[in-house]
Design brief:
By secondary structure, this protein is an alpha/beta fold. It contains 15 helices and 13 strands. Helix 1 packs parallel to helix 10 and helix 6 runs parallel beside helix 7. The radius of gyration is 21 Å and the shape is globular. Bound molecules: flavin mononucleotide (FMN).
């Protein structure tokens, strides 16, 4: 991979100390955000590989960042559905192994955690309380849930109670609140801390913002002030290593969580690890290098799905992200979007002008979901009280059925 010419080579002073998540010491205080349909074993492998390169560039050695799985519904896991069993797989060299669970009730959450820890399937569990997708919030799950503070506390407590005997840390990922009138993050952060969560991560948007507008990093600074005994991780709108450094400088957070910025750009983890190690080295791949990462991603997806057709269909959504800013014509992009075999991907890549340099600004900045603000879909009377009523209690048991997306 090409790096920017001003690469620093000598080891320098780290920007932050290693991140401590329970018993795990994470040298580079960076977390790959859980992303449904994206952060499977294949993508995590690429990100891990690039994270290691960044640590070496910064003169450090050892384990790199924390790479979280896409969210897995606790109920599906307890039922051992084939999809959830595949999603909890890790590569043999993943350390620590990390899994994100989605749950709306303490009994199922506890059962899912118990299964993971007693069967030695993970080293870290993250709980998803940030999903703004209507089919999730409509049933009281995801970002709608912390509003119900007792329910939220009981889910965190159940997960921690099951995981603690195995020394597996449980972390919480959440949003600022449901909307500007129903802000929950400070209360939820303190509850999570007192129920034994090993860290709290904040996507600094409300559910009603979805992915629109900007993350309000001042909320991360406020959470850092409120939660004093466990690490606070900041999330939202980190598109470059410099954004990550800026978030730390502005909020004093203990680490950063990076999602959309690494879509089609797993080498961002090289930049992030290098930046936190105090190095100014940045990766600027040309189209030949980008194409070979894309090709490797496709190969890993084929391996992950155990099926060439499925793997190739899965890589399609990544192609526009990989080629962002490069001169790849509309017709070519269309053909790439229909790719159905590794051989056809190879042929299409071979027909590109692979000598194109990294397009800098055209490739930088936002990628992935944006969308617009909206009214959050919620169960009836949800906002009337922070406690569940009987009807809501009965309804919420159904909320774990068939959900996906964050
Ligand atoms: C495609 C996609 C899928 C996501 N899936 C999840 C998920 O499974 N669990 C979760 O907690 N958040 C999920 N998120 C939210 C991200 O983890 C992250 O909080 C959000 O994208 C903001 O960070 P960013 O600005 O770095 O992208 C998803 C986001 C995207 C774009």
């Amino acid at each position: 991979m090409s790096t920017a010419p001003d690469s620093a080579t000598a080891p320098s002073t780290p920007i932050l100390p290693p991140l401590q998540i329970g018993k795990h010491t994470i040298d580079s205080p960076v977390v790959l955000a859980p992303m449904a349909g994206i952060t499977n074993r294949a993508f995590r492998r690429l990100c891990r590989q690039y994270g290691q390169e960044g640590l070496r560039a910064g003169g450090a050695t050892g384990a790199s960042s924390l790479y979280v799985s896409e969210m897995i519904t606790s109920r599906a896991l307890v039922e051992r559905t084939p999809i959830s069993m595949r999603l909890i797989e890790h590569d043999p060299d993943e350390e620590p192994r990390s899994i994100q669970l989605y749950s709306v009730d303490p009994v199922t959450a506890g059962a899912a955690v118990r299964m993971l820890v007693t069967e030695d399937r993970t080293d870290h569990i993250d709980l998803n309380f940030g999903c703004p997708v209507p089919k999730v919030t409509r049933k009281g799950g995801g970002a709608a849930l912390p509003w119900k503070s007792t329910l939220f506390a009981s889910i965190v407590a159940a997960a921690v109670r099951e995981a603690a005997p195995y020394d597996v840390p449980v972390t919480v990922k959440m949003r600022v609140g449901i909307d500007d009138d129903h802000i929950t993050f400070l209360q939820a952060g303190k509850i999570a801390e007192s129920e034994g969560a090993a860290a709290v991560a904040l996507h600094a948007r409300t559910a009603s913002q979805a992915y629109s507008g900007h993350a309000d990093w001042s909320r991360i600074a406020a959470l850092k002030q409120a939660v004093t005994t466990v690490p606070v991780l900041g999330n939202g709108d980190i598109w470059s290593a410099d954004d990550a450094l800026r978030m730390v400088a502005e909020t004093s957070c203990d680490g950063v969580v990076v999602g959309r910025g690494c879509l089609g750009r797993p080498w961002l983890f090289t930049d992030l690890a290098a930046a936190f190690a105090g190095s100014s080295a940045r990766v600027e791949p040309n189209l030949a290098e980008v194409s070979s990462v894309l090709r490797e991603h496709a190969r890993l997806l084929v391996e992950f799905h155990g099926d060439e057709g499925r793997g190739c269909r899965d890589i399609r959504k990544h192609i526009a992200w990989y080629f962002k800013g490069f001169a790849v014509g509309g017709q070519m992009r269309q053909q790439l979007g229909l790719v159905d075999s590794l051989a056809s991907l190879d042929d299409l890549i071979a027909s590109l002008d692979l000598s194109q340099p990294w397009p800098s600004e055209a490739a930088d900045g936002q990628r992935g979901r944006a969308g617009s603000a909206r009214k959050v879909a919620l169960p009836e009377f949800w906002l009337d009280s922070q406690e569940l009523n009987d009807e809501q209690r009965a309804m919420i048991a159904l909320a774990e059925e068939s959900v996906s997306g964050g």
